[in-house]
Design goal:
The protein is mostly helical and 376 residues long. The chain contains ten helices and four strands. Strand 1 (14-18) and strand 2 form a beta hairpin. The longest helix is centred in the first third of the chain and has 35 residues, at 29-63.
């Protein structure tokens, strides 16, 4: 008996089943293979992202000192990891709901889908929107902290521009969330709104590149200046620079490749990569700063981000000789000329002292004389 298959391949033979109203539904085996392969691949991708998010969230909570847990950077990074974990959890559970069974998917009959499945799908969309908000807020805060040493005339416009750039993807994401939730409840396709999803990916990629370009440019300039001063070991500054390059390049690369490759898993990795990169820089820099602090006399804890913004001069020792600092390996953390005094000046010396201050701050100098001290 000769049997003919569609397109000459048995994987394209058709399977027939019926809806409750008697309508026939025809599906070929190849479509079933594609359906299951996609579900398996996307669940593996979600599972790997979920594990990485949980591990990094635990590390962030354990390795961050209690005095830094009240900072905005820690709060936004911790919330971003939490929302990303919840998002991936609900999106993974979604593939175990009746939405992803063969009969409802191919027949369009979702009468067997209960309210629990609808709630899981909607929660995944809502947590993704909250994740985008936390990512943008964290980028705004970190860029402003890194650019804290800029003059006020440049810092304030930069803050306004950063907030504006962050609000654009947040607005697009909220709009897509509303449309997606309405489509889930109405059991409709989001095909007519594909342009909005594409625009959302574009604005998120542009925002990431904008923030991280400022971030890397400012720190690269600071590193160049420190190299000119003869400081070779940059400590936390170099770490933040490397993580900034990673935060900008890798997610943007994944976001661009998705337009040239038919791999649905690439687009979902962008937000997770940014979420994982932001806390990594603070954890790594904090560890490097702790190693430097062990070489000093015990003192009160300092704020990590103020240290990265060149505000460590008040807590650095000024009465140690250059030879002693070199011997203990402390020279790598020197931030200004006042930290490299050869010897402590005497009280009767008239030699002016060079000090490093932040812009837009007035300083009163005190000159010691033989009879007393005068205020200039």
């Amino acid at each position: 008996m000769n049997i003919t298959f569609p397109e000459g391949n048995p994987v394209y033979q058709v399977i027939h089943f019926w809806r409750p109203d008697g309508q026939e539904v025809s599906v070929n085996i190849y479509s079933l293979d594609v359906f299951y392969q996609y579900n398996v691949r996307i669940c593996i991708n979600y599972g790997s992202q979920l594990g990485a998010s949980v591990v990094l969230l635990v590390f962030l909570l354990l390795l961050t000192h209690s005095d830094k847990r009240g900072s905005f950077v820690f709060v936004f990074n911790g919330l971003a990891l939490t929302f990303n974990t919840l998002r991936l959890l609900f999106e993974t559970i979604h593939f175990s709901t009746p939405f992803e069974k063969i009969y409802p998917y191919f027949s369009g009959d979702y009468s067997s889908v209960g309210p629990r499945a609808y709630a899981i799908s909607i929660l995944g969309t809502v947590f993704e929107t909250m994740l985008v908000m936390c990512i943008m807020a964290s980028l705004v805060v970190q860029v402003q902290v890194v650019c804290k040493t800029l003059r006020r005339r440049y810092r304030r416009p930069l803050l306004a521009l950063s907030v504006l750039v962050a609000l654009v993807p947040i607005g697009f994401r909220i709009g897509w969330m509303v449309i997606n939730c309405m489509a889930i409840m109405a059991l409709e396709s989001t095909g007519p709104w594909v342009w909005l999803q594409s625009a959302l990916n574009i604005v998120i990629t542009a925002a990431i590149c904008f923030f991280c370009a400022i971030f890397v440019a400012k720190l690269g300039h600071a590193i160049t200046q420190r190299r000119r001063l003869g400081v070779r070991d940059f400590g936390p500054m170099k770490i933040i620079f490397v993580c900034g390059c990673q935060t900008m390049t890798i997610p943007a690369l994944f976001s661009i490749i998705q337009y040239f490759s038919h791999v649905p898993e690439l687009a979902d990795n962008v937000l997770t990569l940014v979420t994982l990169s932001l806390p990594l820089s603070s954890i790594w820099a904090g560890a490097a700063l702790e190693n430097a602090q062990r070489m000093e006399t015990p003192r009160s804890p300092r704020n990590l981000w103020r240290a990265l913004a060149f505000n460590m001069s008040r807590s650095m020792p000024t009465n140690r000789s250059r030879t002693e600092m070199t011997t203990t390996g402390y020279t790598g953390q020197t931030l200004c000329y006042t930290d490299q005094q050869i010897s402590k000046p005497s009280q009767d010396s008239e030699m002016p002292l060079a000090i490093s201050v932040e812009h837009d701050i007035s300083v009163d100098s005190v000159r010691h004389s033989g009879k007393g001290k005068s205020l200039v």
